[in-house]
Amino acid sequence: MSTQHNTLDCIQPPVHKKKELCDMDYSQDPPRILSNYLVHAPKPFNAEPHLPLLVNAGLITPTDVFFKRNHGPIPDIQLEDHQVYIGVQSHGQSDAGVEWKALSMNDIMTRWPKATITASLQCAGNRREGLAQLKEVKGVIWKAGTISNAVWSGPRLCDILKDIAGVPQDLHNEMIRNYHVSFEADDHVKEDACYGSSIPLRKAMDPLGDVILAYEMNGQPLTRDHGFPLRVIVPGYIGARSVKFLQKILVQPQESTSFFQRRDYKILPPWIDSSNVDTAWDTTVSLGEMNVQCVICTPMEKEVILCPKPVTVKGYAISGGGRAIYRVELSVDGGKTWEPVDKIEQTPDKISGMYWAWALWEKKVPKILTTSEIVVRAYDSSGNMQPEFPIWNYRGVMNNAWFRVNNVIQMPQPNM
Amino acid sequence: MSTQHNTLDCIQPPVHKKKELCDMDYSQDPPRILSNYLVHAPKPFNAEPHLPLLVNAGLITPTDVFFKRNHGPIPDIQLEDHQVYIGVQSHGQSDAGVEWKALSMNDIMTRWPKATITASLQCAGNRREGLAQLKEVKGVIWKAGTISNAVWSGPRLCDILKDIAGVPQDLHNEMIRNYHVSFEADDHVKEDACYGSSIPLRKAMDPLGDVILAYEMNGQPLTRDHGFPLRVIVPGYIGARSVKFLQKILVQPQESTSFFQRRDYKILPPWIDSSNVDTAWDTTVSLGEMNVQCVICTPMEKEVILCPKPVTVKGYAISGGGRAIYRVELSVDGGKTWEPVDKIEQTPDKISGMYWAWALWEKKVPKILTTSEIVVRAYDSSGNMQPEFPIWNYRGVMNNAWFRVNNVIQMPQPNM
After folding, report:
1. CATH number for the domain including A26?
2. Where are the transmembrane segments (chains A, B) (predicted)?
């Protein structure tokens, strides 16, 4: 019997049950080009590209360089079998009372206009290493490569929610102001029955929000590592909200109850650590928009440059909420004096005008001394700037302190 | 002959000519309650309320406590004579080619629904004093009171621009993405022919942008000091964009050419000072959204508290772009250890859900030692936080470094 349903049928989506860790099967994970990555963990596969690859590839990160963040095995989903379930839960209504509708991937790919958005995704844990150096943190100890930029295509979520879930388009509607959209993946993860997350309904319905359901990345069908067959792209937000392997969309009066919305991805206050963390989750808000960030990708810490010529320092900068990068300043004396970078390249979305994609910048530095500390900092269009020093938080998220590179050695090419 | 025109007439608005400083007449300025204010300059009148008044009045600042920022004499405008001129300039079109339409104040007050927005205005120069202590800056040396919160009422600018200027409502329209709305005041100022400024057209047309033309403040007609008979309210932006004494609205492909858009209100880079400032204006972007800010209003520096009981530390916090204040942290040891404040009060707009109004916060501190440095810092909903130390810029704008209060003396009431 076919699992395909007509959109208007009222049906129940499959219910995921949490698996024991020992039942997690990673044998069907896709093959990967490991040479591009610093692999932090094989199961689940978590890897960030080497920093120079990020800037040398140009504004669009090739798919096989894009960072990979997983919480479980990559599900093996068949395009023709996959269904996306959409429902609305009103105030006080039980989960069982929700009327679901199902869309096939063919529906997703043909019923609405295909939007194309260039957007960077950044893990909230990017640069966690800088906080781990201050005090023990919980999480993958990411360096600064847990960010990448790609071109994503698929229907706008606002169109689907309007047509299938009857969500009003008027941004002044009370529902838009108070509701959330929860996403669930068709996967199994260590922490919960499946990966899940939510965003405010306002973000989903805002024509300037540019939230899409992407089935293409860089002009090709999504790869399994990046969410095949369908993922949410929530530009301007932390990567955790761009749920992969999308299976369920629920419009509801509260945030997702998933572990990843309620027990993770929050900037816990500095007085919260492993001893008292359970007291803090419910009083700490979930992360949404990214903060302003800037990183030097090349040269790297302790790099030896065998060339007497000026060195081109390169890196990325980004802010959240569609805010532009307005200025990048570089110091080669540990922050005593600053100069503008030579060039900042950033392109707004061609329809909404929002800045969802990172800026790449570069600056020629005449000579790097072994005593030079190279520091970078950026301003965004809200006048926010990165803090000079990192502020520790237990989950090690949102570290956007000034980025520093030390111990670069520049010397002439030795005689061969 | 009446100066009233039918809306559909094509007419020319009056052209302001720059006045010599010696011709500025301040004799018609309104009377003021000076005791509420620290007056920085009488002509033009620039004054900020004493900090404790700001928090003790509650979330809404009384009109006679609200800070006053002027660039020239207060114009003496008659409600029944005042006209607001609205035009659209297309690419390459000369100023003379613009077709203007005029609205009377009666039109403004009756033809569109009256929206009511509670929004804080903050001068970009708030806390300039903190930057002046580092190096010479240009501008009024404001302390931390150049911010206030009021209830504003009037029509939405998006409605007027749609009906009178034919601006499309579709936020994906190319014009929305690329154009600006310039405002000019019916006044005379020192720096230019009149006060002027602009905002992106997208901000004006966004239903979540909440830009209004206000003729009421705190339920009363605007006072002359606050822009009678009509001012723009651009919530979430620096105060400089909320133009008072509004006379002209021009939709155009570029930012306002006013001094106040092009030669002021920019975060100049730290290597720019009075010696080279002319090289930097055109390459430095204009300010729009506010950054994240937090200030202790009471106790004040060097305050003597004659009471042995716990002291309630109070202050405000705000961010730009409608972003909420998510956390306020207080330290009484100069930033070594932090605690949450006891209470944060902030209310989103009841229609759009955006956070345009400041948060007021307070915390009981058991005892303040003479050696205590009280420090506060806030996080907003984009995960941005204030910088620990101020970064100097020549115009002394957007200083949002951690706010510090020293030399508070707490002692028992002396025997009488």
Report:
1. 3.90.420.10
2. none
